[in-house]
Amino acid sequence: MTEDVSMVRERVEKLFDEQDRQHSGFAWMYENHIRLVEEEASGLLNEHGADEKVVKLAALLHDIGYLKDYRNHEQVGFEKAQEVLDNLGIELSKDRLALLDGAISQHGYSGNPEGIEARIVASADALSHLRPRFWAANAKKDDKPLPEFYDWMEHKIERDLDKICLEEAQEKAANRVSSYSPNLRP
Ligand SMILES: [Fe+2]
Fold first, then answer.
1. Per residue in 168-183, pLDDT tens?
2. 182 CA distance to ligand 1 centroid (A)?
3. Residue 157, Cβ neighbours under 10 Å: how many?
4. Is 137 exposed, middle or buried (0-12, 13-18, 19+ CB in 10 A)?
5. How far is the CA of 88 from the centre of ligand 1 (A)?
6. Distance 63 CA to ligand 1 centre (A)
7. What is the fold of 2-183?
8. DSSP 8-state symbol, 92
9. pTM attached to this predicted model
10. How far, in Å, from the CA of 87 to the mean position of ligand 1?
11. How far, in Å, is the centroid of ligand 1 from the Cα of 94?
12. DSSP letter string, 126-181
């Protein structure tokens, strides 16, 4: 398992870095988002009986659809993920592929995605947004006037809180937001 996950991690980093350098001028997505989703997802694995390999692969591949179709990244994500796995010669069972598909295609929903792997990935995705380095990378990438940036950030935080569907992730999110919020807007 570890070897497959490492290969995917390495490939995903390379793919996002190439795309980011071309479109944003600096590599940001892997370093400030994707690897944090894997980290948050690993922190939510305990006690749920989820398939660890699927959760890690889905965390690494959940946004891979951006490389194919920016507007519909959730719909095309699984297809692109399969392409990455095929190129690396990684074969997964039908059951694991179905779980991976579910986790990738449902990661942006608010509410309760079907399957524990999908709930972990959706919650980890939202939790990973509640970190200053994610906001800092977006501020640099979008180069918006600050008031507009703060509007975007506050709106994003609200949407992310809505997306978190596991109790321990909700607790982590509430703690982070309450520690930031008094000073969020200068
Ligand atoms: Fe994401």
1. 999 999 999 888 765 6
2. 26
3. 20
4. buried
5. 22
6. 5
7. Hypothetical protein af1432 (1.10.3210)
8. -
9. 0.93
10. 22
11. 24
12. HHHHSSHHHHHHHHHHH---HHHHHHHHHHHHHHHHHH--SHHHHHHHHHHHHHHG
